[in-house]
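[job 4417] fold queue: 2 targets
>>> target A
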Amino acid sequence: MAGFRIVRACSAVIALLAGGASWPVPAWSDEAVPAIEIDATGSGTPFRHSWEQAFGSDRADMALTESYLRNADRTREATGFRYVRFHGIFDDTMGIMAPDADGHMHYNFRKVDAVYDGLLAHHIRPLVELSFMPSAIGSDVLRRDGGLEPLVHWKADEQAKPITDYSGGTLWYRANVTFPAHMADWNALIRAFVAHLEQRYGAEEVRQWPFEVWNEPDQATWVAQPKMATYFALYDNTARTIKAVDPALRVGGPATGAIHWVGDFVDHVMREHVPVDFVSTHIYANDPPDLLRLPKSPANTGNTVCDATRTARRAIDRSGHPDLPLYITEFGADWDIHNGSADRPWIAPWIAQTVHDCDGLAPIMSYWTFSDDFEEQGVVANELPGAYGLLTTHGIPKPAFNAFALLHRLGNRRLPAGSGDGDVLATRREDGVIAVALWNRDADRARDAHLAFRGLASVEGATVIVIDRNHGTPAALFEAMGRPVSPTRQQADALIAAARLPAPSPAVDCRRARQCDVRLAPESLALLLVPAQPK
């Protein structure tokens, strides 16, 4: 990886950063190996923490659970995140609408209020995903009639009985993903919903909530055909209805998977003069190449998430509207819930690499997800590896959680870090501390980083925090416990303590005037903190 060189490091650093493991240290002289020069002479460039502005979660119902809100609090404390995005604010389980005996539609927003009241009480705002279709107004006739089929004679000598069949849905909770039977009913729902939000929470508050129309209409969560044309019709009606209630509200889409339709969407809304305030899409590192179809570009880094984000950004810019912000409302290393990516050590340096490579591409990137309160494929069977969450349902931190907590400590000004800074992020914080993230994605070999600071009088007092296979993970204790499927409260507390982000330790090889050597174990992430210089 560009910019790093193997250098001499003392055994104390090895013991500190590798959890006691021992690797051979080459007897190469410092003078023979170029250092990574971090230039602290200037103020640096803006470094917006876009990766921690928002996090994803399952569906609206889950926001009413104790574990969800507890994990939301812990994630907000660790990252300062502002928005949460989830599916299903209009799902049938939210009970928002039903016809009366005369066929007139009535709205009931009590559960909606409970969800949003709870989030706001925990200092988190919704990034409102307008989904899915209430069965009362969807185009699935069976579901619109309450799931009752015509009377059926199961046996010739028995009375005819109705049967219930919700096969028209998707995901474990059978979300209705059909087109509205009558667009006027959908528009009326959107109008009533938005007006209710402003009446309850105030227009100034709700104007800070982005409204995103649907979720992944290019995939299984939209069954209308043709997909793009019918989604555009839904978006047009939704956006115009929202703006009719309050022109200052923000609305966007297409919320597609694998950056699909981005250019088509922008072309459509501009051609048809449809309101749009942001463009949204999703990307995962393991999206199949034939699904993603990334064009070759010299700007591509080999990081799928950031290369795709860059491609989406270029598609917006080509439309002649470079002022439109791009929101990546879902991203992650792995879309497969069964792979357990969030609890494995490699995720920490992967997150750091993605933060590095995606810098400046999108003001909001929402990681999927912050909590294992997640039931798209059913109730998660095991505490670990669990689902995509940064935290298990008991609140046990995974390496992914600790990576976000560590990177949160970076500053908001990025400093130059050599000509090939592929594995280092150097920043200055508002308190004057120089915070430098370093990582090693190699699964087999340790690496040494030799840092030289320009513009600092001294690096004395520097500290380091490390996440690796032995630090910031519950893995060893979990194995010793026999991998309990559902830990007891006592076991969960012990696992939480074992997985806690390590405290800063003295960086013992930062004693020279302006240089530091840091050893990085395989699949590790480190944060070096150099104290503010006296003025």
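>>> target B
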Amino acid sequence: MVRVSTTPRRVAAALGLVTALLVAGCSGAGQQPSAGPASTTAPQPAPPSSTPPEDPATLAATLVGELADEDLVGQVLMPYAYGDHATKVSAGSAAGNRALAGVDTPAEMIEKYRLGGLILVGFSADDPTQGNQETTNVDDPKQVRNLTTGLREAAGRLPAGTAPFLIGTDQEYGVVTRITDGVTMLPSALGAGAAGDPDLTEAAWRAAGTELTAMGINVDFAPVADVLVTRSAVIGSRSFGSDPQRAADQVGGAVRGLQSAGVAATLKHFPGHGHSAVDSHTDLPRLPQSRGELAAEAWPPFTAGIEAGALAVMSAHLDVRSIDPGVAATFSYKLLTEVLRGELGFAGVVITDGMNMAPARRFPPGEAAVRALKAGNDLILMPPHVGQAYEGLLTALRDGTLPRSRLVEAATRVLTMKFTLGDTPTPALSTLGAPAHREAAEALAAGAVTVLRGRCDTTGVRGPVTVTSSGGRAHTRAALTKALTKAGVQVVLKGGTVVHLVGYGDGAQDLRTGAAVTVAMDTPYVLAKAKSATLLATYSSSRASMTALADVLAGKTRPAGRAPVKVPGLPTTTCAD
């Protein structure tokens, strides 16, 4: 039974009650270092209350009271692993796992450290996060489903195995998309922002969530709630746009869509990576904005996501000068506990950004994990050494550096999210790419196409078309060629009306002199330098976006999108309302 979208406020209220009771009544639990019960004294039953017996928070609190120290620590860790199978990996993957965790396989890692979850990673050339993706776990949906099945089998043998195992990935759609083959590809978040219809966004993300569930994934590190205030290649088209309220509406739609399909949504990157162009994978960005500016410009999408019931928020490696100068938000009690929980009212799971990123690696893995937990995180993501993070937390718990109440609270929140997700039925893999899913993606992509120069009624091309692009985009050119042909437009190798495509990472040098139409498939800023008579933006190079573009170029549909960011010298659209 999927309980995600219907209980977030009840779960939050119950969680606060049962956590307080558990911390007060079981402060001596889990002292023994064995794998057996946490103590020789049975946990005292909670006093009678109106909370339903199957409430996720009650189930979580009961289970936490039965777990040993080692299990509590394991529940707050979510590392990555090497290999595309749970129990059989290549020699290279085994070597990687030994260096990371002293084991050969992902299943052994789960069993040794009693893990609460695992993140599946991957990378592509046009991915601003590729620097911390040292391996890949994904190939195609069938392989992913086999992998996740094996991971769950390993987790089911743990003392905490009655709670569903968390398997997450970064499936944002657009430039950060871990699983690309065999799935319905949505347009980027910026494309959804251009379409400006939260209902279309919700429907598309519901389709995406259903496909993730079919592959055995129940946590998506998406949507990106960052407002694109600062022009940035790090966030860029991963954001829904530069207007806080419009972005907030889109974030709410994405959360509702994902969680209605049984996948936990994760709002990222709090307190707002869109306010800096510095890459937090390699450095600690400084946010100079005042607290008031952040509250007005950065936090509305996070608030909207929280109100929509988002089960998780990802903390960011950002130095907010006006609140906790010199301290990354990942390690800031002021930002995570006082602001995110106290002011914004978030009661769910706070997840760190990758702890293998440079700002977090300023501390040894064990110390970093302890600092992050004490600041208010509940789940430690991608520690650079699993064993050191695990032992660091366990040692800090036993010597009192890490308060038991904080670990109990974190583990209870993680388990509450697990029980809230429940044992969601796994759809058949044939669900992937279903007609209804493609239609939802295509509707969102069609709404995104924007005219920034040229008239809406003259965007259709006459005569044969030549499709060109900046380097390395043969696949996208082929997709557009196929879509144009299907739409009735003749495509030739040379000599026709030139439609030129530019995408992620392209600049003025990648534009084509003499192109009749220039199309931006990522952020549209490059169009400010283009001389073409017609300027269009799709914000995405997905198949759905190329189909939508072809229909516009063929004169079959009217482009209705509005640029969700300001492009110097150009309007948000030339189309009348």
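[job 4417] complete. Note on B: The mean pLDDT is 89.
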